[in-house]
Records
---
Amino acid sequence: MKATVGDLELGYIQQGQGQPVVLIHGFPLNKSMWEHQVQALAGRYRVVAVDLRGHGESRVVEAPADMDTYADDVKALLDHLDISQAVIAGFSMGGYVAFAFYRRHPGAVKALVLADTRPQPDTAEAAQGRRNTAQMVLDSQAITGVVDGTMLPRMFTEATAKNNLQLVEHARQIMYATPVPAVSADLLALAGRADSVPTLETITCPTLIVVGEEDQITPLADAELMAARIPNARLEKIPGAAHLVPMEQPAAFNQALTRFLDSLTP
Ligand code: MLT
């Protein structure tokens, strides 16, 4: 489905009825990373999986973006769908968007799900590396280095990479569907993202933190930091998973998610 919000066209999946749950994808992915969650939740919840601008079915925008822009796009989609309050679930970069969403639209957040994400900003060196990569992507008009060089090798555990080639290939295809301008815009947004550590203790809504036990991009220590600082947080560690937990261990991820969602409704 597509919605026109302002001058932007945003792709999204919407299924089911009940408490709205919004799923925000990571880098450099799109809404299809959530297919198992949409299936599992749609029986009891109104699930909305969004394509951030430039990704999936959303219109490609050449202008640079930041996490606040992505967050406001999600809010505009919710307004379009007449959803005043939702559970906001973000994976990795989607978690950075969720933090921005919470800062900008706290009244629209019923609860937060922070999956394989972290609150700290990039170091100066890491941010510079991302900006260099953004330029390289634009110059070469290719995202091979990002997908096969940097991201894909760290998405899954060694065991999955060896034994589940089909899953790895599926993730690769989702990544390769992301156009050059979106990958470059994401990298600049990632590099410039705000420090969300001070946000943690201001989060008053129920929060679920999920992390793959073997995640190297946003490791366990980051999840534990969030769990310690967010007043009303619950932490779920998923065994046999690295970074891309919703795709690598969908059953365990869905179990943690539904347990949390069910606890919100009396
Ligand atoms: C993501 O997986 O969405 C991001 O790449 C995480 C990051 O690089 O900080």
---
Amino acid sequence: MIVVMSPNATPSHIGDILSSIESAGLTPLHMPGTERVVLGALGDERALAELHLEAFDGVESVKPILTPYKLVSREMHPHDSVVGLGGSVRVGGERFVVIAGPCSVETSEQMHDAVGAVVAAGAHAVRGGAFKPRSSPYSFQGLGQEALDILVECSTAFGVPTVTEVVDTSHVDAVAASASVLQVGARNMQNYELLKAVGAAGVPVILKRGLSATLQEFLLSAEYLMDAGCADIVLCERGIRTFETATRNTLDLGGVAYLKNETHLPVIVDPSHAAGRRDLVPPLARAALAAGADGLIIEVHPDPATAWSDGAQSLTPHDFSRLMDSLAPIATAVGRTLA
Ligand code: PEP
Ligand code: MN
């Protein structure tokens, strides 16, 4: 329920409503705006109806939130949220943010080469997997803590925020202590216990869309994170399963446009896992920028032919640099900045 206060509502009118919501066992939300105060009440709809909030002094109107997700909906929060990833890197504002790096952290040297190259080409933050959720149990599973230590070294050496995936509730504290941003991967989008633990970790989160998740399921997973206390959530469209087999997944740019309408959270695109092959990554990346995404997360490896995971879709540093150059005029055309 959204309670819009009239412009002349007093702090005591607001206080009365917040405490009534709370005493009915519901969660009150206070959202002061520039023109008027908006309050929210989350919880059992029947208890909400019994409160008759429309009859309280200072109330202009009471509206139900029609979507099943509440905290992440634009109805609740009309303005775009801007999410800090660490340092001065913020996603969701005018700047189009590019996160780049290898699929997996392999060695200190590989990671330093990769980070040096992507930062020189203009990346704002870097990625590298420490715990890898692989389809086959025989594939490389990630270096774990050793990779986290390498990420810390790189973040310090190059002064950039780092993004890495967390796959298990028991790893959340260690990953949050080492990385600037926690990634919840596609395979774990509906791992609700993981979402609760990650949401309570006190660090920003990139939530990737599940392989076969609807946009509503995606937003409900973001709602889990926010309900657990995390306000700094970035959604990531990374391609979904369709009947098409020519590409690894099908990049859902319609979904990106839909999400931008439906939620205040920033939305980024991962063209690497969508395409599965490096030649398709640059056009998908440019399309994402043109379609209104707030940023990209791209796999780049110093030597993709020897990559321990996802080499086929990884750009070389040279390809990445050319891609960054080609994004600049599109950013200008759609009113974004890259630098
Ligand atoms: C990754 O980012 O390397 C990854 C495994 O991504 P996804 O969860 O989108 O498959
Ligand atoms: Mn990968």
---
Amino acid sequence: MSFETPTNFFHILGDKYNEAVSNSKIFFNGSSATNEVVHQLLGDSTVDFQYTLLHSLQHRPESGSIEKNPFAKPEPELTVLDSYGPNEEFKIVLNKFPVVAQHFMIVTKEFKSQDSPLSPSELQGTYIILQSLKASDKQNDWFAFYNCGPQSGASQPHKHIQFMSLPNKEDFVPFAEQLIMRSAAFLPNSQQEPLQNADIPFAHFVARLPEQHQLQEGELALYFASLLQRALTVSRRNEAEHISYNFICTTKYMMIVPRSNGKYKNSLGINSCGVLGLFLCKNEEILDLVKKDGPETILQHCGFPNTAGQGSDEYHY
Ligand code: B4P
């Protein structure tokens, strides 16, 4: 048994999304949004950040709980695929409160904790969807993300991996993608260290994936484990009370960013989108705060110090 997405998955996604929006089952917050991209000089690097300002924010619950869990029985009107995975263990569900159109998620059918690492099967399901979107969506580049642990920016405790399209690539190139342009594919289980840009003031671990062949479950798990190992070491060395990190995956790379704080100054929540450089500002005051303090300072506060140049040893996590 293996993972399969319907060949017309992207069309099913688009149709379901349009129907849910027209039936008011989705509260799209993007129509009130304005975007601004800045190209910030940090040391010898130019790092892209996008500030999204929302002028109105509708109906979104601040946080869920095991009792009040929207993914226990996802709304049929939001369900893109009722079963996904070799053991039919997942559903594919639209995000009810998107800021970017067609934002969707893989959710586990059974309750699993958002604090648990991604399993080989969850990684493969994610990767196969990214491959399918790459083959059929000629306009957008997509990324998957997983907010894991109490300081990761997650608001729902039921396991879910999200998928969103990136801003226009003429304007915004995530720093992780800039980093892999200068590197060969990463070899997990070798002496090789993951990539980390020393100019960016928080710890981040990036692995370029080989693009010549489709990676299998076991290989994906090795990549994930190599990055997670570094994130766990950083968390332990900084005496973090909980394990929290953001995971980002495209068909070209994986990145893990260990997290110390879910919020900046108690007003700005930072999730995986934030660590990739996409800042969601829910009012003008928050946008002013981001501009005044600087996105790199905010991410430094929410992560741990950069460890570029520090190799791993046998005591690594
Ligand atoms: P989590 O992993 O738990 O949390 P999150 O994405 O960080 O979103 P959060 O809820 O904390 O909201 P935020 O203000 O950061 O994901 C749970 C997801 O489930 C949420 O995305 C939520 O919308 C969704 N959800 C809740 N109830 C649901 C239901 N009944 N059915 C289906 N889905 C449900 O961000 C607000 C929104 O903007 C989120 O969608 C977030 O992912 C997105 N976002 C964050 N940063 C962004 C950026 N820079 N650009 C575009 N979108 C961004």
---
Amino acid sequence: MKLPEIRIRAPAKINLGLEVRERRRDGYHQLRTIYQAISLYDRLRLRRRPRGIVVRCRRLPRCGRDNLAWRAAALFVERTGAPGGLEIDLEKAIPVGGGLGGGSSDAAAVLLGAGRLFDIRVPLDELHRWAATLGSDVPFFLRAGAASGSGRGEEISPLPLFRRPVAVLIFDPGFAISTAEIYRTFRPHRLTTKEDKFTMLLSRWRSGTAAGLGRTLFNDLEETVFHRYPQLAEVKECFLRQGARGAQLSGTGACLFGLFGTRGEAARAARAVSAAFAGRCLAARFLPPRRRWGVVKR
Ligand code: C5P
């Protein structure tokens, strides 16, 4: 059935663990990560137009070819030979340059939404390949929920949901950090075989409590980012003093997150963090995979 328009939500993600290894020949870093989608969303409305791609977004200065939603739409139309173009209204709520995957999530939402709008079914593995050409995090957002990622982040294995309730608090310092720049200055540690932080985190994920999970969070890029932005290290300390079970930078930043046992604890910490630092706090929770909270709203 042909629909006049599609409305779709694009969630943010956090990286609960991020192990970054050496730079590969293609310029990307080999990594292992645990992605978790959270309930902080950009909102997109997709409509058909006779030809061409148009993206409108009040909060972004440029919405042309360098915008990932634009590129996802162009890719979809080109690869499927869809009859016509796309018009996208993008309402951003996910901080830009925050390490929360907003742009990648928008791109995945466009791929999914365009398929519905044109009633063109693309096999999921094909969609994954297209998504990976747009960015390392984009394949994760096709399903969202929780997943481990390897390769440059694009090889996805779904994880079961974390069993215990967790309240998430995001701190947005209000400035952006360039992912490419952080990776460029990052120097990998020599790996010690004894300390496999990723395996420990995975086992806590499968069996643990919010406190156990919090203790095993890690992000290999944190040192590089905190060296350049020492105020972010202070916010992390504040999160921990305020009772976070764990706190860290998401991806390459600039946003941090803290995990709390209850929403009340998170709200108390938000008041203390907001009083002490310039920036804003956003409350969220872990999201299940996309099929459980709706791919598309008509
Ligand atoms: O894949 P994506 O376009 O999101 O990556 C942005 C930049 O981050 C890349 O151009 C690269 O410099 C860096 N990156 C990396 N290793 C990864 C992922 C990203 O070096 N695994």
